[in-house]
Structures are given as structure tokens and as C-alpha cells.
Write a structure and sequence with these properties.
With 246 residues, the chain is an alpha+beta fold. It folds into two domains: 67 residues, Winged helix-like DNA-binding domain superfamily/Winged helix DNA-binding domain (Arc Repressor Mutant, subunit A); 162 residues, 3-Layer(aba) Sandwich (Chorismate lyase), CATH 3.40.1410.10. The chain has eight helices and nine strands. The strands form two sheets. A seven-stranded antiparallel β-sheet has the order 3-4-5-8-7-6-9. It has a two-stranded antiparallel sheet with strand order 1-2. Strand 4 and strand 5 form a beta hairpin. It is globular.
């Protein structure tokens, strides 16, 4: 039966666990577009939950563009849209895996602190808000491909303080553990600063692609990430709400 590998993680409300369990193989590329996922009745029986719980999970997945709900054929994995491709750029581990390479990352900085004025402006929180600062370098085939600078609101994701990020990237962890209701991202070209050039092993001033992303849960900011890769692109900004979480 399709979806026999769906496993709940035991973290949070059941509809969110079901949503994450289905989203995980889709985002990793393990489930191809058009693949049928278990029906509402199959999911209800498998996890002992109500139809409302299952419907909420599927509605959220459909709102994010991960699945398509068809009247006659049931729910299937949706074909990636151009918007979704841009929206997923931040999950570098999934992008590298889809390209058939092995993802590796090096944690350069991990510290908790009170947000400075600059950090507060980036995360859209009051100055002094407790934050987790992260700096990581992601690599594929031994070569740096992305520098990740991230701020996470400890109030929005307190469990993140227990994660060491030895095997999972921060973006992937947040997707799996902290449900978002709204997101904003921008994409632009920029020249590499000396520090970024050092980490990415490129020359200072080299062209880079910079993705900045913010997510919220309701009115509460969750994270700000700046992701820099050797590349170049025009600015593109989008703001989204998953339909199941309106």
C-alpha cells in the first residue's frame, strides 16, 4: 500500500505529525509526482485518528502545493510548480539529495543571546528577545555550496536549544518541528564579502545568490535565514500562507 513508510514523530498535535510524515518523503524526492498517498480512511485506521484530523493535515499539504486532492483518484503528490521550486531553495540538504550528491555541513557558530538591534530588525522581534544564532557551511562532493546565517526565536521554538545540528540542517529541523503559517523570502545577487568568500572558497567580490527567508506562526516570528551560494539572480519576493492553516 502506498505510504506504508509513513511514521509519526510523536511531536505535537496529530494533524501536524501526519502532515510532516507525508511531507518528508515528498520534499526529499522519495515520492514522485502522481504517486497516490493513503486515503483519509486508510490514514484514520492507521493512526487511530478522526477524519477531521486527517483532513486538516491533507488540507495543509494541499495548501502548500505538496499534494493535489482529486475527487475520483484521491490524493496524489503534486508536480512541483516554479513557485514551489523557489520556495524550497532554502532546504539545501534536500536540493543536494535530489541532485544525487551527499550533503555535508559544518557548524561554525552556535550560541544563544539577546537579539541586537540589527538582529531584532531582521527577525522582526523586539530588541533583547532570546535568539539562537547559527552559522553553517553546507557542502556537496566536498565543495562548499551554501553559507547559512540563521536566527531563531527561542520563544517560538524552545526545543531547538536541545538540537546540536550534527546530522540535520536547521531548516529541515524547523520544518519538521515548528509549524509555520506565513513566510516571506527574497532572492538577489550580491558580491561576496571577505568572510563569505573565505567560507565558500571563492574570491572576495565574486557573484553570489543570496536568499533571505522569514517565517511566522500567526503574529509570532520564528526564524530569519540568509543563505548565500556562489551564483547570481534577480530579486524575487513572495509571501505565502498554507491553506490548511488560515
Amino acid at each position: 500500500m502506498p505510504g506504508t513508510d509513513i511514521v509519526l514523530d510523536g511531536d505535537g498535535p496529530l494533524h501536524q505529525q501526519i502532515r510532516r510524515a507525508i511531507a518528508r518523503p515528498i520534499l526529499a524526492g522519495a515520492w514522485a509526482p502522481g504517486r497516490r498517498i493513503p486515503s483519509e480512511h486508510e490514514l484514520m485506521a492507521r493512526f487511530g485518528v478522526s477524519r477531521m484530523t486527517v483532513n486538516r493535515a491533507l488540507a495543509s499539504l494541499a495548501g502548500e502545493g505538496l499534494v493535489e486532492r482529486k475527487r475520483k483518484s484521491g490524493t496524489v503528490v503534486a508536480a512541483p510548480s516554479a513557485e514551489r521550486a523557489v520556495f524550497e531553495i532554502w532546504d539545501i540538504s534536500a536540493e543536494i539529495a535530489r541532485a544525487g550528491a551527499t550533503h555535508a555541513m559544518r557548524l561554525l557558530l552556535r550560541e544563544t543571546a539577546e537579539a541586537t538591534q540589527v538582529e531584532a530588525d531582521r527577525l522582526r522581534v523586539p530588541t533583547g528577545t532570546p535568539v539562537l544564532r547559527l552559522l553553517l557551511c553546507h557542502s556537496a562532493k566536498g565543495a562548499p555550496v551554501q553559507l547559512e546565517e540563521r536566527l531563531v526565536s527561542v520563544r517560538a521554538a524552545p526545543a531547538i536549544l536541545d538540537e546540536r545540528f550534527e546530522t540535520i540542517a536547521p531548516g529541515r529541523w524547523l520544518l519538521d518541528h515548528v509549524p509555520w503559517t506565513e513566510a516571506e523570502h527574497s532572492i538577489r545577487a550580491a558580491e561576496a564579502s571577505p568572510e563569505i568568500a573565505h567560507h565558500l572558497r571563492i574570491g572576495p567580490g565574486a557573484a553570489c545568490l543570496v536568499v533571505e527567508r522569514r517565517t511566522w506562526r500567526g503574529d509570532e516570528p520564528i526564524t530569519f535565514a540568509r543563505l548565500t551560494s556562489p551564483a547570481g539572480a534577480q530579486v524575487l519576493i513572495g509571501r505565502f500562507r498554507p491553506a490548511g492553516e488560515r
